[in-house]
Amino acid sequence: MKRKIKRIIQQPWELLTSTPVTWDKIVSVKISKNEVRNRFVFPWIIVCVIVTFVFKSLYSTNKSIETGFINSIICAVSLLGAYFLSKAVCFWYLRKHYQEKYSVVISEIIVGYSFTITFILEIITTILPDLFYLQILNIYTAYLIWEACRAILKLSEEERGNIVLVFTSVIILSPVIISKIVHLMLPNA
After folding, report:
1. Is the pLDDT of residue 79 over 70?
2. Is-contact 109 147, C-beta < 8 A?
3. pLDDT of the residue at 3
4. Rounded CA gap, 42 and 48, in Å?
5. Which of the chain's ends, N or C, has fewer CB atoms near its CB within 10 Å?
6. pLDDT per residue over 92-148, tens digit each?
7. What is the pTM of this model?
8. Helix axes 116-127, 2-17, angle to 10 degrees
9. 25: closest CA among 151, 149, 120?
């Protein structure tokens, strides 16, 4: 258990501090279908949901448990929906433009690990809401995808541009859009 927690924290840290080396390590390990989702994405979503519940409950002036519960559900729906939507759109884009060259597993690896910035910023801005301006750091997702295209997809610099643009846009915007839609459906949340 302790080793799993260490790995869940260590991998994002390595992705943020030494991105090219970490992507090369990820490529060298044989990853099966759903492994990224089960060992990386879901644990981080659970952490985000727990942090959201705790801190939204603490910061609420009235009905603290209800507020924390509703906000944690919104967080879970937006992050899960964003992950699956991003994975589907990115796989569709790879299939359309690279004719069956890449698999669902490759798309899942790139999207899953590229959500690192989203997860960390969600946690930071939930704990310290006054640091909302840190959301601009989501742009670092583009660099993560840029290096993933080099390491995993083996694309040259000229070929990476469109993939980086599409993947980054989907990964950054999908949690925001899904969260806004859920908030529209729950007007008192």
Report:
1. yes
2. no
3. 78
4. 10
5. N
6. 998 888 776 678 888 899 999 999 999 999 999 999 999 889 889 999 999 999 999
7. 0.90
8. 100
9. 151
pLDDT of residue 15: 86
Give the distance from CA 41 to its chain's centroid. 7
* Sign of the alpha-carbon dihedral angle for 4, 70, 131, 171: positive
The type of residue at 179 is: S
Task: Report DSSP letters for 58-92, one per residue.
Answer: HH-SSSHHHHHHHHHHHHHHHHHHHHHHHHHHHHH
Only one residue has tokens 């959301």, namely: 135
DSSP string, the chain: -HHHHHHHHHHHHHHHHSHHHHHHHHHHS---TTHHIIIIIHHHHHHHHHHHHHHHHHH-SSSHHHHHHHHHHHHHHHHHHHHHHHHHHHHHHHHHHHTT-S-HHHHHHHHHHHTHHHHHHHHHHHH-GGGGGGGGGGGHHHHHHHHHHHHTS---HHHHHHHHHHHHHHHHHHHHHHHHHHHHHSTT-
Tokens 């258990």 locate to 1
Position 30 confidence tier, pLDDT thresholds 50, 70, 90 = confident
Overall size of the chain counted in residues: 189
